[in-house]
Every structure is written in structure tokens, then in C-alpha cells.
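Handout, section B. The chain below has 118 residues.
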Amino acid sequence: MTVLIVDDQENMCWILSKILSSAGFLTKAVKTAKEALSVVDEYEISAAIIDYRLPDSNGFNLFLDIRKRNKNFPCLLITSYGSGKIQEESLKLGFDAYFDKPFDSIALIAALKKSLGS
């Protein structure tokens, strides 16, 4: 299974790729919402981990654009700018899970696997 990572911080993409690879996932990392939508359209992606703040959009808008393409596409939101309001809104929108950075990698993998039904 391939997981799309969307984060404008290159080091976060690298860290998430390493964490997910060690859990048996393939990854595709991009830095913008535009790139993310292109990847979703071109590749077989199983789920996405989306940063809230992106240079060309935000995680909520990207999530809604992805869900227009596939209403059951599992998505997790991560952010350095966490707040109860963002967490509440993300779960209300339909994100499968929400994580503040820094996050617990074991909990992130568990949430991802749960959202994928495995």
C-alpha cells in the first residue's frame, strides 16, 4: 500500500517516509496541494497524511478536493499549529485521525492501519 505524504517541510516528509517504510508502507511525498492532487490522479494511493498548512492551500481544502475524487479515501491530518478548534473541525470534516507535531509514531501507524481497515 502506498501512502501519500503532503508536507512542505522536507525533513518531515523524510521522517514520515522512514516511519511508514519501517511499518511496511510505500510512500510518495509532495510539498503542495497541487502536487498531491496530481499524485492522487496518477497513482494508486491507499491513504494520505496531510499537513494543515501548505504553501498553496490548507489541509482542509486539500482533503475536500481528495474526497471529491474518492469519498472513502483515508486521510490523517498533522500540524505544528494544533488547537482544539482545528482538531474538532478536522474530525467533523471526516479526517480519520488528527495529530499534533511532534507526534507519537506508533499511534500514527496504528491510526493509519485502522483507517485502512488492517
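Note. The chain has a mean pLDDT of 96. Compare this with the example in section A.
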